[in-house]
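pasting for ref
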Amino acid sequence: MSAGVVVVTLSKTHIGIIPGEIIGTALLILLGDGVVAAVLLAKSKAENSGWIVITFGWGMAVAMAVYAVGFFSGAHLNPAITLGFWIHGTITGSQAIKYFIGEMIGAMVGAFLVYLTYYLHWRDTEDPGLKLAVFSTGPAVRNYAWNLVTEIIGTFVLVFGVLAIIGPWNAITSGLAPLLIGLLVFAIGLSLGGPTGYAINPARDLGPRIMHAILPIPGKGGSDWTYAWVPVLGPLIGGALAAIFFDAVFGSFPL
């Protein structure tokens, strides 16, 4: 065994689930909310560059975060993924709680870093809705029931897709799985993201929304807490249904 392998093995043991998920989710939100800030905030060089830039940025954010910490924590980065894996039998309930903690802390850290990165642009952006949109999602047409359905469907596709990509019959994707998962998120954004902004991740929406509420952002307005339950509950339902459906059709297998 080489010295390099020994170091990696010890590091994996040392980092653990919570720190790994904090780092990975923080990177996810930094790059994901960061691209939204780049497109929406005044005087950004990427201002008004559009939906394709946002969706591609989020897809690459997922890929990079999974590559960064996948070896150490499995890189769930998303309570809906964690719930799906728990139902699938890949992790225990006590492990799931650790994932949830790491994901929420990481999402808040990532949102804070976005705030710092675009510090000079908040005051020049007049619309408080654009500032909130950097941190959290909102519906194009507000109807809580149908917005919930959209989030359920989008997250179902995400969790089902992730389980399929990492399935043992897809050994050909070894090493490419993080990139493929990122492209899956890109595709979901393009095809299903229009109605709600595709949170498809409770931590991704709730953690930054909390940071929006507490950070001293000039002229930020409210944090839209009346909608906040939709991008939390919808993805959890979608993730659970995806895992149940996947196991019923393809059977459970160790990941």
